From TrEMBL:
Annotated source species: Paenibacillus polysaccharolyticus
Source superkingdom: Bacteria
Protein family: Belongs to the binding-protein-dependent transport system permease family. CysTW subfamily.
GO molecular function annotation: ABC-type sulfate transporter activity; molybdate ion transmembrane transporter activity
CDD domains reported for this sequence: TM_PBP2
Quaternary assembly: The complex is composed of two ATP-binding proteins (CysA), two transmembrane proteins (CysT and CysW) and a solute-binding protein (CysP).
Protein name: Molybdenum transport system permease
Keywords per UniProt: Cell membrane, Membrane, Molybdenum, Sulfate transport, Transmembrane, Transmembrane helix, Transport
Annotated function: Part of the binding-protein-dependent transport system for molybdenum; probably responsible for the translocation of the substrate across the membrane. Part of the ABC transporter complex CysAWTP (TC 3.A.1.6.1) involved in sulfate/thiosulfate import. Probably responsible for the translocation of the substrate across the membrane.
Ranges where the ABC transmembrane type-1 domain occurs: 58-261
Length: 271
């Protein structure tokens, strides 16, 4: 009996600790952002959201994050395919490099982009001679977002590729299907949940990117000013309500994305 009571007490204590940790580090800060954004009333919230600079910053961030997510879905799926289906020298090393953006501070990623593609670099000088620039313009923002979200699609697709039963592909070939048809009807449906969820995670992460973007964007309102940098500027300008209002937009969008990811994963498990 004492053993049972001790077991129940330990379980209750463990659950309570985890729940308290979750509430203090996640729930309370989120509630604080929402409360701060509406602290001066709905009219002030609407005014902050409809501010032309804020609105353009949010729209620009969403648009460029979509571009970065699409790039990651295409390239990430190809890289996951190569790392899973082929054996070659250096494969393990390349596989470990996939997670490098997770380990590096994002500001370091921004610095790398500046050094490789900036005006003083060989690539930057070549681009300038062709009549366009990369750093301090929107292409640099897309590159920064793509870099920091690079692992998501790869790590979401890899396990799905590994779980595909080779006999299904062999059966498709036996029935006379071409490689292209086998890929479209057998392999792609198995990879699709990972591609979708990984792309959504990449999009959600790109929305919030600050460290790499602030170094390479130029931060020109209406042209290269992203939402995260705008929020930072509002805090520096002693306008936390305006910063919280834009943060609420990003938070709500991120919640919707996470809900969709959950839905996609649940449907994938049912299949």
């Amino acid at each position: 009996m004492n053993t049972v009571l001790r077991h129940k007490g330990w379980t209750w204590g463990f659950r309570s600790t985890v729940l308290l940790y979750f509430i203090v580090l996640i729930v309370l800060p989120i509630i604080g952002v929402y409360a701060n954004s509406f602290s001066e009333g709905w009219s002030n919230f609407a005014e902050s959201i409809m501010d032309p600079i804020a609105w353009k910053a949010v729209l620009l961030t969403v648009r460029l994050a979509v571009v970065a997510a699409i790039i990651n879905v295409v390239l990430g799926t190809m890289i996951a395919w190569v790392l899973t289906r082929y054996r070659f020298v250096g494969r393990s090393f390349l596989n470990s490099l996939v997670d490098l953006p997770f380990a590096l501070p994002t500001a370091v990623g921004g610095l790398m982009i500046m050094l490789l593609l900036g005006p003083i670099s060989a690539v930057g000088k070549l681009a300038e001679s062709m009549g366009f620039e990369i750093v301090f313009h929107q292409p640099a923002i897309v590159i920064a977002m793509t870099f920091v979200t690079f692992p998501f699609v790869i790590r979401a697709v890899q396990p799905l590729l590994e779980e595909i039963d080779p006999s299904e592909e062999e059966a498709s070939y036996t029935m006379g299907a071409s490689k292209a048809r086998t890929f479209m009807q057998v392999i792609l449906p198995s990879m699709a949940p990972g591609m979708i969820s990984g792309g959504m995670l990449a999009f959600s992460r790109a929305l919030a990117e600050f460290g790499a973007v602030v170094l390479v964007a130029g931060n020109i309102p209406g042209r290269t000013l992203t939402a995260s940098v705008f929020i930072y500027g509002e805090i520096e300008s002693d306008n936390p309500t305006g910063a919280a209002a834009v943060s609420v937009l990003l938070l709500t969008l991120s919640f919707l994305i996470l809900w969709l990811i959950n839905l996609v994963q649940m449907r994938g498990r049912r299949r």
